[in-house]
Amino acid sequence: MESKDFDSYNERKAFDETKEGVKGLVDAHITEVPRIFRLPQGTLSDKKPSLSSSNLAIPIIDFADIHVSRPRVVEKIKDAAEKWGFFQVVNHGVPLSVLEEMRDGVRRFFEQDLEVKKSYFSREATKKFVYNSNFDLYSSTACVNWRDSFACYMSPDPPTPEELPVVCRDATIEHWKHMMSLGDLLFELLSEALGLSFDRLKSMDCMKGLFMICHYYPPCPRPDLTIGTNHHSDNSFLTILLQDQVGGLQILHQDCWVDVSPIPGALVINIGDFMQLITNDKFISAEHRVLSNRTETRISVASFFTTNLLPNSTVYGPIKELLSQENPPIYREFTLEEYTKGYVKKGLNGTSHLSYLKL
């Protein structure tokens, strides 16, 4: 057993030291999936959608007439946040051109000259912009995921333009501004869905921090053997996801994997662990994963509302107004930093970190 672990570590290290990521393997025309990427047998087919769930679809919420039908939108968000933890929004006010340019910017970054890309490679979490493959490469006991990523810390202290790569600089800044304004509206609607004042969640600094991770999933020679992203829930209050039309994102709902089918121009919204915690399980942070595929490169951009990566002494716990004798607190109080240390240490291994904070 020890030698196997030792081999795995050395193989991960050798992969990491190329600084070329998964794209480097694909560019080298490999035909086999290296051992560190292989899932335990049967993992991908463990929760196939049953016939009764084949008509399950993530709720789609239209924001077109929000100024005249806000209560109706709030009701739909409440229903989606309680039952699914996921929903898609259309007519959300973010121009299609902004979304397309962000997707194109991510592609340009990963497909640019290798030496330029390597200059951004780092495993230092303190940098404003970091490119690597698998943030939990050395800590996770699960298989390595078939994707490369870059991450940038945008709020509350945005990087200078010079800190961002020129190929995606303008796109990233523009996308960030629109995510902040959409996030502002979403936190108001979620507050109202909890029966609280519209600014309650914002007053708790839920949207103070914005952290963007852009994923590049190259085609995989054996998608039956590996996965794009292991199943996990997000350590955020809320996540806004831009995905392209390739598909592959699935959420665990009623013990079945349900596809989050791409809709042109839509954004995927999901509740994060911190939101489940402060709402005392009223809103749920659903487990999700991304499948790899044989033929196409998939690109996604996740905007996480979280201050977990900043010095922050705020203590969070279930919101007092939501508690009663019938609804006592399920979780103890915690700081985001404490939560994140445990979350990062365990990696994306398919277990929720929420259980560690239960009373």
From TrEMBL:
Q: Which residues form a coiled coil?
A: none
The alphabetized UniProt keywords are: Iron, Metal-binding, Oxidoreductase
Its needed co-factors are: Fe cation
InterPro entries per the UniProt record, alphabetical: DIOX_N, IPNS-like_FE2OG_OXY, IPNS-like_sf, Oxoglu/Fe-dep_dioxygenase_dom
Q: Which GO terms describe its molecular function?
A: dioxygenase activity; metal ion binding
Q: Which residues form the Fe2OG dioxygenase domain?
A: 208-307
Q: Does the keyword Protease apply?
A: no
As for family, the record states:
Belongs to the iron/ascorbate-dependent oxidoreductase family.
Name of the molecule in the record = Fe2OG dioxygenase domain-containing protein
Q: Which organism is it from?
A: Brassica campestris
